[in-house]
Amino acid sequence: MRTIAVQTASASYPVFVGSGLLKTVPEKLRKQFGKERQRVFVLTSPEIWSLWGETLAAGFDEKPSVLFLPPGETYKRMAQIERLATEMVDAGADRSSLLIAFGGGIIGDMGGFLAAIYMRGIPYVQIPTTLLAQVDSSVGGKTGSNLATGKNLIGSFHHPQAVFADVSTLKTLPARELRAGLFESVKAGIIRDAALFRYLEKQSDLVLSGDEIALQKVIAASVAMKAEVVGIDERESGLRMILNFGHTVGHAIEAATGYKKLLHGEAVGWGMLAALELSRRRGVIAEKEAARIEAVIRAYGPLPPFRAKVDALMDAAGRDKKNKAGVRRFILTEGVGQSIVVEDVTDAELESIIAWTLAEAKR
Amino acid sequence: MRTIAVQTASASYPVFVGSGLLKTVPEKLRKQFGKERQRVFVLTSPEIWSLWGETLAAGFDEKPSVLFLPPGETYKRMAQIERLATEMVDAGADRSSLLIAFGGGIIGDMGGFLAAIYMRGIPYVQIPTTLLAQVDSSVGGKTGSNLATGKNLIGSFHHPQAVFADVSTLKTLPARELRAGLFESVKAGIIRDAALFRYLEKQSDLVLSGDEIALQKVIAASVAMKAEVVGIDERESGLRMILNFGHTVGHAIEAATGYKKLLHGEAVGWGMLAALELSRRRGVIAEKEAARIEAVIRAYGPLPPFRAKVDALMDAAGRDKKNKAGVRRFILTEGVGQSIVVEDVTDAELESIIAWTLAEAKR
């Protein structure tokens, strides 16, 4: 097991990465929260609970109360937050209760948000069960819900008390989701961790085969990179923006394809190819480095083809909520482990790399 | 004009109290936020906007976008937060936008909550237009929305950037609301500010007549008391609990009468009589002091009569969300300006003072 400490201005908590961690959760929570009697609530999906619920629940003296959220973005909405909060009230949850978010990224985002606003905030713990959630969304304190007009437009910064990334739960994850989640680790390597990049470059077969030791290494390194960045810039006023590498175009692709065609990681994969192409065109990266980066992104593919209109992507990119007061920030790479934030990407440049990306994605 | 500084662990901001402040808002905001271009959104009620909107909007270079929330607890719900957030997205609000909550307590609570969770938090300003909101709810950072099962069960701690309590806006406030709001100032005097209590005791006629100078004095003192308490204990883990004097029974009365019969301040008035009676029975207060306190509470009445069942009030008091891990905290008074928190109030004691209160309220 590896333990990574997240330390930000407003919170500090451990991220545990290892195999067979689920069984250790109750004991660790008892240690962390002392003997104070706390009611425990678990937010999970029916599928995860049927696969792993018994393993998690076994060690609790008092069985946790279970709340369910069906899978899919359709349920990542305020009406569900209201329903879940009402169920918690009815079950007697108070300010000393603890919420465990046990599932993928949507469960983590919604569980964190529910904990953030239930009685103005209760503590919570993340147990991510998808690779994407383990390497990315469970760490950093971003929580939220969608609006009809866009993803994650409502939310809070609310850090968990602990994160348990149990590599064993990935055994039941569909292969496509494992592959897609790895793009966030590829991103971690590209923007800041050259050693992680080299490992992903050399051991792609082992990693993609789902080897637990290899995955533990990749997850721990990805989390450590994110923890460091978030520790320096909790609220995304500076450095944290580099985590959006591949996300400006990635988010636009997701929006323009109705969040149905591609998984988030796959859209980020395409978005990283776009950001790399723009880095090449601007001459901020040497071709040799660019070729290495492109080869690794493609090695974790193949990225699924998709079709969309340039205009639709431009509209979606313009509405990217990361843009403050009208400035379009864009993350470029100068080489493996190196990223920069630029603010002067023109509409013409953006349109041109979007057209390039669409041409690549049609093949 | 009086300026009170609120300084907590997580925020510091001014509360301006005075006459004719609305006109000064745009200039003060320009000073506070510098020249950075910020879109301004105003959440208000149709009535407040028709009475005071022009006065507020006059000084803005770019007219603010106005969002409306109809009056009443019915609209203090998550569905309205979702609608308002969607309207903000459609109108182009981003993370650099500023929200002004311009109205009574519900507008303040909902506006603060909307600002807390819109794109994970944007800055906001409170312009309370009821006495209750000016002396109490606009200061301290508590924001929230109701659930069907209870009030303020969903929310955030999110401090405003500034509060403008314009006494002039109270001219259009119904007399009953003025009277009801003053109970929170009476509370402020009882629990911590003996000088404020004496002023309210001696000048009750002047204060109740709506004299602007007298109200300014009362509002400023009430805000200063709350600011001090919140500065010491932002998250209600200790001292802040004294602000709940009169609120355990007060909230129960509101719940048991369906939030229709009494205004919040009136319910708190009854709740303070109940807390005073319990203080007498426990012998923690000298009778002379108790008589003074009772006289002042009654001077700001008459409190409207109501009927309810003891059981209904007991149920409602038991569900009071202020109780952590099953402990029922209760605030008593030891004399003018002095309050204590106790945790050993038995069901029998509570039932007995509730029965006493109901008998008083029937007369």
Automatic annotation (TrEMBL), chains A, B:
Localisation: Cytoplasm
Domain 3-dehydroquinate synthase N-terminal: start-end pairs: 68-179
Cofactor note: Binds 1 divalent metal cation per subunit. Can use either Co(2+) or Zn(2+).
Catalytic activity: 7-phospho-2-dehydro-3-deoxy-D-arabino-heptonate = 3-dehydroquinate + phosphate
Molecular function GO terms recorded: 3-dehydroquinate synthase activity; metal ion binding; nucleotide binding
Cofactor: Co(2+); Zn(2+); NAD(+)
Residue ranges of domain 3-dehydroquinate synthase C-terminal in the record: 181-323
Major location category of this protein: cytoplasm
EC number(s) stated in the UniProt entry for this protein: 4.2.3.4
One Pfam family recorded for the sequence: DHQS_C
Pathway info: Metabolic intermediate biosynthesis; chorismate biosynthesis; chorismate from D-erythrose 4-phosphate and phosphoenolpyruvate: step 2/7
UniProt: NAD(+) binding residues: 129-130, 142, 151, 169-172
Function: Catalyzes the conversion of 3-deoxy-D-arabino-heptulosonate 7-phosphate (DAHP) to dehydroquinate (DHQ).
PANTHER family reported for this sequence: 3-DEHYDROQUINATE SYNTHASE (PTHR43622:SF1)
Protein's UniProt name: 3-dehydroquinate synthase
The encoding gene: aroB
